[in-house]
């Protein structure tokens, strides 16, 4: 599993970190089998394969907030940015902005509480389906690897902080400013799964690679902005119908456990980045 800071990429083997890449402005990554794609704050992408880093000139210029590796050979990557656009990068060609995403009528309602530009905060995929979490503006979905887009049924809280797919056809999770929602029909309908969570302001969500009912979610008392909001990590083995707080050995967190800061590795081991601890 790759572990990223703002300027380094590591692997962790037998408890020892090994640096794989050093570069400024790391915003996001998606790990594949033979290569991984890393999005940077200047809009560029770096492909990491066989310990070799290959910069890809995208021609974007906006920060890449999230990335989805659709294909390794040939290389095909979706990029989500701030302002909210989705780009497709094919091999060495410049990234192409997806016109169907830009043409969504609901774009006019997207916003941020502080008045800045909205963003595509996270991307998730399952087969040909791709889901884009808009902050703030619910979730958009594509059934054809990003070629065409439409909104999901807006039965969930619009302030979505991360979307994640699961190893089950149609299953989708979203962690929002009002806790976790789950869909079993690719976002056609949603159920609110909040019972048992001490706080409801959600940020990150991660799903076990083989068990669609096993997931992690982080919650807190609010967005933070320098305050002690008491970030907490919960796990569920029944798709969020019940939740258990992670306590044994888990550190106290004053701030939020943020988007992308929890994950499962390929073996199903759960990881969390809490302030300066992993």
Summarize the structure in words.
The protein contains one helix and 25 strands. By secondary structure, it is mainly β. It has a domain at 152-278: YVTN repeat-like/Quinoprotein amine dehydrogenase (Methylamine Dehydrogenase, Chain H), CATH 2.130.10.10. The strands form seven sheets. The chain has a four-stranded antiparallel beta sheet, with no helix packed on it. Strand 6 (45-49) and strand 7 (52-56) form a beta hairpin.
**Alpha-beta classification:** mainly beta
Strand count, sense and barrel status of the largest sheet are: 4 strands, antiparallel
Assign an overall shape: globular
Distance between the termini: 13 Å
Q: Indicate the low-confidence ranges by residue numbers.
A: none
Q: What is the second-level CATH architecture of the domain at 152-278? A: 7 Propeller
Keywords:
278 residues, mainly beta, Methylamine Dehydrogenase, Chain H, 4-stranded antiparallel β-sheet, 1% helix, 45% strand
Describe the structure concisely.
This protein is mostly beta strands and 278 residues long. The chain has a domain of 127 residues: 7 Propeller (Methylamine Dehydrogenase, Chain H). The protein is built from 1 helix and 25 strands.
């Amino acid at each position: 599993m790759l572990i990223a800071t703002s300027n380094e990429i590591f692997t962790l083997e037998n408890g020892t970190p090994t640096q794989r890449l050093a570069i400024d402005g790391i915003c996001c990554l998606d790990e594949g089998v033979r290569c991984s794609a890393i999005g940077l704050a200047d809009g560029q992408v770096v492909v990491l394969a066989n310990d070799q880093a290959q910069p890809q000139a995208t021609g974007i210029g906006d920060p890449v907030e999230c990335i989805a590796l659709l294909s390794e050979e040939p290389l095909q990557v979706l990029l989500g940015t701030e302002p909210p656009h989705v780009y497709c990068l094919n091999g060495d060609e410049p990234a192409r902005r997806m016109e169907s995403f830009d043409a969504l009528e609901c774009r006019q309602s997207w916003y941020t509480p502080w008045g800045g530009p909205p963003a595509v905060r996270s991307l998730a995929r399952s087969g040909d389906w791709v889901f884009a979490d808009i902050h703030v503006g619910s979730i958009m979905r594509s059934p054809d690897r990003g070629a065409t887009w439409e909104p999901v049924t807006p039965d969930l809280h619009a302030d979505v902080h991360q979307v994640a797919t699961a190893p089950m056809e149609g299953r989708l999770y979203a962690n929002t400013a009002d806790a976790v929602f789950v869909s079993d029909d690719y976002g056609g309908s949603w159920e609110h799964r909040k019972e048992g969570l001490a706080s409801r302001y959600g940020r990150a969500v991660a799903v076990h690679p083989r068990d669609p009912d096993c997931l992690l979610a982080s919650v807190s008392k609010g967005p933070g902005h320098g305050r002690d909001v008491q970030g907490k990590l919960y796990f569920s083995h029944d798709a969020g119908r019940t939740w258990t707080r992670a306590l044994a050995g888990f550190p106290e967190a004053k701030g939020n456990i943020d988007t992308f800061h929890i994950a499962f590795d390929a073996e199903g081991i759960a990881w969390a980045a809490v302030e300066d601890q992993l």
